[in-house]
Amino acid sequence: MAPAVLKSPARRAALRGLAAAGSAGLLAGLTGCGFALRQAPKFAFESVQVAGFENTSVSRSLQQALVSSGLRVVNSSAGARAPVDPAQAAVPPQVVLIVTLDRHERVVSGQTDTGQVRELTLRARFRFRLTTPAGKILIEDTELLLERDISFSETAALAKAAEENLMFRDMDGDIVQQVLRRLAAVKTL
């Protein structure tokens, strides 16, 4: 008799109504506490020059993210990301992002009794500072360091190399997002 009660249309409708009311209550509570989805960053400047380590994977991803955010990006190397409009080319950038370090590291962190590698630590380091063209420091030297541990097996070396590359790409994306948030925190030049 109990299974027939669970399958009744009235009971299903009541459970759906409770679920909808609970969802609406949860959403109302979240909006009341100030919760909001992350928005695209807003910057206090419209153009940025990237100097030093312009052609590394993190710097290229960062430049693409800045362009996607509506900023004009200029490299210190000739021709890279140069504006198409000659009038814009004459306008100097408002800020200079100086990348002083962009490095991937791979360190052995675990071995077996026989000395075989069993665990690696992957590190992505990115150091930068933000200044005005006149030299005023807007963001002091900041180093971002991300670490991930990965197991290793000689029998699956190719698969582990692909996994390592994927983890480095993921860490590079995290670094780009952190740099964007720090750049958006600058409110005045």
Automatic annotation (TrEMBL):
It holds the Pfam family LptE. This is LPS-assembly lipoprotein LptE. GO terms for biological process: Gram-negative-bacterium-type cell outer membrane assembly; lipopolysaccharide transport. Component of the lipopolysaccharide transport and assembly complex. Interacts with LptD. Together with LptD, is involved in the assembly of lipopolysaccharide (LPS) at the surface of the outer membrane. Required for the proper assembly of LptD. Binds LPS and may serve as the LPS recognition site at the outer membrane. It is found in: Cell outer membrane. It is a lipid-anchor. InterPro entries: LPS_assembly_LptE. GO terms for cellular component: cell outer membrane; transporter complex. The keyword Mitochondrion does not apply. It comes from Hydrogenophaga pseudoflava (Pseudomonas carboxydoflava). Its main location: membrane. The gene is lptE. The keyword Membrane applies. Belongs to the LptE lipoprotein family. Keywords: Cell outer membrane, Lipoprotein, Membrane, Palmitate, Signal. GO terms for molecular function: lipopolysaccharide binding.
